[in-house]
Amino acid sequence: MTAIIPLSELRAQIDAIDQQILHLINQRANCAIEVARTKQAEGETGSFYRPDREAQVLRRIKELNPGPLGDDAAAHLFREIMSACLALEKPLEVAYLGPQGTFTQQATFKHFGHAVKDIPVPTIHEIFQAVETRHCQFGVVPVENSTEGVIAHTLDRFIDSPLKICGEVEIRVHQNLLGKMDSLLGINEVFSHQQSLAQCRQWLNTYLPGVHCTAVSSNAEAARLASLDHGKAAIAGLMAAELYDLNIIEKNIEDEANNTTRFIIIGEQQPLSTGADKTSILVSTGNQAGALHRILGPFAEYGISMVHIESRPSRQGLWDYVFFIDIEGHKDDPDVAKAFQVLQNNVKLLKILGSYPKAVI
């Protein structure tokens, strides 16, 4: 039988280990400072954030992790260490769809860590503007939800924007009913973003039939409004509950158990190939017969997997559409480059929106 180790001895071991961890983290921080000096000496004055490098580091951590800590837990810890070290080099300013407490802010912290300067912006259009005018180095915008489909405002903004997609992050969306009250009794109105209302439609019809639902600009705004009136409730995340001091009346009220929203990171960077990448493109064919076949043919010819395709009006003419396509691979991978060369000759417009690492955590 294994002997029980006294608590005093275990706590002494933990204190000693914590001291070692702190020493090693600060060693890493000193290395980060030296990296910044070297980059500046070599004339690199742009963002010190490298999405390809960070994705490789996090993947390596997950591969090396011996447990018992889970791979994702280990990666999250290193995400925060990397975020704090990067802030010593040059703090990042990241625009997200505000106000505070939104899922987009949650996605920002998941991707960049909590050491960034997160800046709430009221609309997707203004997030693009903030990055295009270099008020922020990066922006985080929602692009699709597993239940409700694509976010049209995000796709449409890419038609004219020079920005690139340089990363992605997925958030498992848990919707919660929040309010000043403790139960469903007395609720006369529910606020939320229109996407969240749609994601909880069945639950609302079952448990709050006849209660008026009002769409607002964000879930965080819904929580703010619910905090002002005892008869009002909001559908939002747990961050919003904490921020606006609301009770969690019901948890996880989304209709689909695997409700997930994908966010993309927009900026001017073009990450290098990491071996596990996606590429997003915009294609215009004009209003021609067989257009879709000409788009898909080169990908089939070179064995490239297509992850997603979506059509949107081009706003250039009646029944003229553009296609947004996500594929596996990086634009510099040989087969992808060959497919793009063939595709270029088959379409009116091919715009590479970005090649970027697949989400790691």
UniProtKB/TrEMBL annotation:
Keywords: Amino-acid biosynthesis, Aromatic amino acid biosynthesis, Cytoplasm, Isomerase, Lyase, Multifunctional enzyme, Phenylalanine biosynthesis
Reaction catalysed by this enzyme: prephenate + H(+) = 3-phenylpyruvate + CO2 + H2O; chorismate = prephenate
Entry superkingdom: Bacteria
Residue intervals of the Chorismate mutase domain: 1-93
Major place of residence: cytoplasm
Known EC number: 4.2.1.51, 5.4.99.5
Function: Catalyzes the Claisen rearrangement of chorismate to prephenate and the decarboxylation/dehydration of prephenate to phenylpyruvate.
Protein name per Swiss-Prot or TrEMBL: Bifunctional chorismate mutase/prephenate dehydratase
